[in-house]
Design goal:
With 453 residues, the chain is α/β, with parallel strands linked by helices. It is built from 16 helices and 5 strands. Among the domains are: 78 residues, no CATH class; 187 residues, Phosphatidylinositol Transfer Protein Sec14p; 50 residues. Strand 4, helix 10 and strand 5 form a beta-alpha-beta unit. The termini are far apart.
C-alpha cells in the first residue's frame, strides 16, 4: 500500500475511495514485554462490557452487522491514541461515535463513509457539497497537520451537513501521528442573518470532543472582511464562536482577522504551524488548490503534460503574459518555477483551449438568456400592475368628483330652505296686509337649482 507523498496536500474529498491503512489490533511499536497496547485494547473491551446495554446497543449492532466498517473507520486503536491510552475514555468515545452516527446519518448509518459513489453513508448531494472544497487539509510530516474548514459554501438549510462532513474527515484522515499530537483547525466565520434549525444531535464541536477519533490541538477562527457586515457584528460573531469552542473543546481558540495578515501569520507560526501549512492569503505558502471533480479526473490530466507548478492560477497567468491579479494580502512565494510558454504549446492544448472557450461561451450565453427572460417576465408583470393601478386611480378620482358635487348640492339646498323660512316669517310680522308670495313646491326649487349647475 502506497503512502501519500509528504510534500503533497491531502485534498478532501478524495475522488475515489481512499485506501486507508487499517491499524492492526496488534501494534508492534508499543510492545515492551507485556504488549502494553494490546493490554489497553483488552481493557477497552472490558470497559465496553461494563457500559449499559442501552448506551452501547448501537455499537453492538454495528459490530455484528458491519465488522469491516468498524475495523476501517472506527478501529479501537484510534480511540486509544486520541484519549492518551485511557481505556475508559476511549470506550465511551467509541460508544458515542456510533450513537451520534446513527442519529446523524439515519438509515445510512451502517454504510461506509469512504464510499463516495452516492451509495454509502454520504448521499450524492453530500458528495457534491464536499467537492466544493469545504474541507481541505495539509500535512507536513513531523511538524503539523492543518485542516481548513469553510462551511459558508454549503446550503444553510441542511443543518446536519457539517456533522456528516466532519465524520467523513475523521474517517479519511487516519494517522497515528496526528491522532496523538492533534491537528490544527482553521475555520472561517461568516455572519449571516439566517435561522438555522437547532438540533442537539448536530453540535459540531461536541461531536468532535466526545465522539470522533480526532484530537484538536488548536482552533483558529478566521473572520473574513465583508462590506455588508459591520465590524461590531463580526467581532460579536467571533466572540460567540470562541465561547462555544472553548465550552465544548476545553480550550480557547485564537481569533484571526484577515485585515491583519502579519498578526495572523505570527500567531500561526507561534503555535507551531509551519509556513507551508499557512494559507496563501494569510502570508503563507499553501495555495489551497482543490480538485476539479466536475471532470472526475486530476487537474494535471486536464491541463495536459505540463509541470505541476502550472497548477497555480497566479503562476500560469504570470508566465503566459496575462494581467496579474491584484493581491490584496499575502506574500509572494519564496520560489517561482520559471517555465517558458513554448513548453506549454504541446499537441492537444489548442483543442482543449477551444473546447474550454466554447464551453465558457455557451455558459455565458445561457446565463444572459436566462437573465433576459427573467427581466422580460418581470417587465410584463410590472406593466400589468401599472395598468391596474391606473384604472383604479381613475375610478377613485371619479368617486372624489361625485362626492364633491353631492356635498355642494346638499349645502345649497339647506341654504335655500333657511332663506325662504326667514323671509316668510318677516313678511308675516311687519306686513300683514302684504300680498303673500306664492309658495313653490320643494321639487321645483331643487330642479331649478340643479338646472343652474
Amino acid at each position: 500500500m502506497e503512502a501519500p507523498c509528504p510534500n503533497d496536500s491531502l485534498l478532501l474529498p478524495l475522488v475515489e475511495c481512499p485506501s486507508i491503512p487499517q491499524p492492526s489490533l496488534q501494534v508492534e511499536e508499543h510492545t515492551d514485554g507485556e504488549n502494553s497496547f494490546g493490554f489497553a485494547l483488552k481493557q477497552l473491551e472490558e470497559c465496553i462490557d461494563v457500559i449499559s446495554f442501552e448506551e452501547k446497543k448501537d455499537y453492538l449492532e454495528a459490530r455484528q452487522v458491519v465488522p469491516l466498517v468498524i475495523e476501517r473507520e472506527s478501529n479501537p486503536a484510534r480511540f486509544l491514541r486520541v484519549d492518551s491510552m485511557n481505556p475508559w475514555s476511549a470506550a465511551n468515545r467509541l460508544i458515542q461515535y456510533w450513537k451520534y452516527r446513527r442519529a446523524i446519518f439515519g438509515e445510512r448509518w451502517l454504510l461506509p463513509l469512504l464510499d463516495l459513489s452516492g451509495h454509502g453513508a454520504l448521499t450524492t448531494s453530500d458528495v457534491k457539497d464536499i467537492e466544493k472544497d469545504v474541507i481541505v487539509s495539509k500535512i507536513c510530516p513531523g511538524k503539523a497537520m492543518v485542516v481548513y474548514v469553510d462551511f459558508a459554501r454549503v446550503p444553510v438549510q441542511d443543518s446536519l451537513f457539517s456533522s456528516r462532513a466532519i465524520f467523513f474527515v475523521s474517517a479519511a484522515l487516519q494517522s497515528a501521528e496526528w491522532e496523538t499530537k492533534g491537528v490544527h483547525v482553521i475555520k472561517t466565520l461568516t455572519p449571516q442573518f439566517l435561522l438555522r434549525r437547532r438540533n442537539k444531535k448536530g453540535r459540531l464541536w461536541e461531536i468532535v470532543r466526545t465522539a470522533l477519533p480526532m484530537r484538536v490541538r488548536k482552533v483558529f477562527l478566521l473572520t473574513l472582511q465583508s462590506s455588508r457586515m459591520s465590524d461590531g457584528l463580526i467581532q460579536t460573531t467571533a466572540n460567540m464562536a470562541s465561547l462555544v469552542s472553548e465550552f465544548f473543546l476545553g480550550h480557547s481558540p485564537t481569533c484571526i482577522f484577515e485585515s491583519k495578515k502579519e498578526d495572523a501569520y505570527i500567531k500561526l507560526i507561534s503555535c507551531g504551524v509551519p509556513p507551508v501549512c499557512i494559507p496563501y492569503f494569510l502570508g503563507g505558502e499553501w495555495d489551497m488548490q482543490g480538485v476539479p471533480y466536475l471532470q472526475g479526473s486530476p487537474l494535471q490530466s486536464l491541463l495536459g503534460p505540463t509541470q505541476r507548478s502550472a497548477r497555480s492560477s497566479v503562476f500560469s497567468q504570470e508566465e503566459s503574459g496575462a494581467t496579474k491579479p491584484k493581491r490584496k494580502r499575502g506574500r509572494p512565494p519564496k520560489v517561482l518555477v520559471k517555465e517558458s510558454t513554448e513548453d506549454l504549446k504541446v499537441e492537444g492544448d489548442e483543442d482543449f483551449s477551444k473546447k474550454r472557450n466554447a464551453l465558457y461561451s455557451r455558459r455565458l450565453y445561457r446565463k444572459r438568456k436566462e437573465k433576459y427572460d427573467e427581466l422580460q417576465q418581470s417587465q410584463e408583470k410590472l406593466n400589468l400592475e401599472n395598468d391596474r393601478l391606473r384604472k383604479e386611480n381613475e375610478w377613485l378620482e371619479g368617486l372624489i368628483v361625485d362626492a364633491k358635487l353631492q356635498v355642494v348640492f346638499e349645502d345649497d339646498d339647506i341654504f335655500v330652505r333657511s332663506s325662504l323660512y326667514h323671509s316668510s316669517a318677516t313678511t308675516t310680522s311687519y306686513s300683514s296686509h302684504a300680498v303673500p308670495l306664492p309658495s313653490l313646491p320643494e321639487q321645483d326649487i331643487s330642479s331649478t337649482l340643479y338646472s343652474n349647475y
